[in-house]
Design goal:
Length: 148
């Protein structure tokens, strides 16, 4: 599988991974059982007025598990997310919905565990204005591995 190239149009997007104590983490090779989090930062560059009905789609590789803070009795503050209108947490992906004012920056964290051994593809994170195709950004997908 060839990863799609990262791109940005009228929106800035960055994705980083961190240990639970906040140290930057390279997700390409993780030890099985490692707890960590993904941090997605979306920035309105100020080119247009308020961006309404924004959506971030964050899919995860099969070897990682999402720690659902609403169902797993995990302190919701651990995710430390910016305000959002709604968040849909599925088995392998998280959708977050929000509005974005000019020059506003929103950050969303998703708690994860490297659960299953193997090599997996981590797809692009994609953010878009749902009703304006001139506003979108995508990170580049990468191959990751969960090791013993």
């Amino acid at each position: 599988m060839k990863p799609q190239a990262a791109n940005e149009e009228n929106l800035k997007l960055s994705v980083n991974y961190y240990t639970m104590d906040g140290k930057l983490l390279n997700p390409q090779s993780l030890k099985q059982g490692t707890d960590f989090y993904a941090e997605v930062t979306i920035t309105h560059p100020g080119f247009k007025s308020t961006y309404k009905d924004m959506a971030v789609q964050h899919m995860f590789p099969s070897g990682w598990e999402i720690l659902n803070t609403r169902m797993d009795e995990i302190d919701n503050n651990a995710a430390n997310n910016s305000s959002m209108r709604y968040q849909d947490i599925r088995d392998d992906r998280v959708y977050s919905y929000f509005d974005l004012q000019p020059y506003e920056i929103k950050t969303y964290r998703i708690l994860l565990t490297a659960a299953y051994l193997g090599k997996f593809f981590l797809p692009s994170v994609y953010c878009e204005a749902m009703y304006d195709n001139t506003i979108h950004a995508r990170s580049q997908g990468i191959w990751v591995e969960v090791k013993r």
